[in-house]
Amino acid sequence: MTEQRRTWHAEHKKGLSKGQRAADVMRNGMGSWPFVGTFVGFMIVWALLNSVVLATVAWDPYPYILLNLFLSMLAGLQGAILLIAAKRQDAIAAAMAQHDYDTDLQAKAEIERLTALNNQQLEILRELREILGERGEGPGRNAAGGEKLRQ
């Protein structure tokens, strides 16, 4: 009974390359509060180590030029990763829009088919009423054409 439903999203995810999956993971990681908290914590630890703990032999004394270099490199990579992720999101949105459009077309065709079937049924009912009207058998009358049937 644990039958997994095969959805469009599951099919789409199976077709992703490793790079596309990595871009999604990195986008989701960098765009989260745990990442921001960890990042701020790392910078505080860096500053404390280089200013207080290792004040005499700090590898990156104030104004933290090495940290600034790392932050600049991270910003450059983060920008590129976010652009890659944005392109992926655009591709996903376009694929979902196409899927929605295809679904709408199928629904429209089904509705048109059902409407045509309903119109045929209404036409048959009209013809039956005309036939019954010519015989003098209206709704609620018996086949002998006389009195109304009691319900």
Question: What report would you give on this structure?
Answer:
- It contains four helices and no strands.
- It has helices at residues 8-14, 18-30, 33-53, 65-135.
- The longest helix has 71 residues, at 65-135.
- Helices cover 74% and strands 0% of the residues.
- The protein is an all-alpha fold.
Q: Any descriptors?
A:
151 residues, mainly alpha, 74% helix, 0% strand
Shape: rod-shaped
Low-confidence stretches: none
Distance between the termini: 49 Å
User: How can the largest sheet be summarized?
Assistant: none
The whole-angstrom Rg is 36 Å
What's the SSE blueprint?
Elements: H1 8-14, H2 18-30, H3 33-53, H4 65-135
Helix pairs in contact: 2-4
Task: Briefly characterize the structure.
With 151 residues, the chain is mostly helical. It is 74% helix and 0% strand.
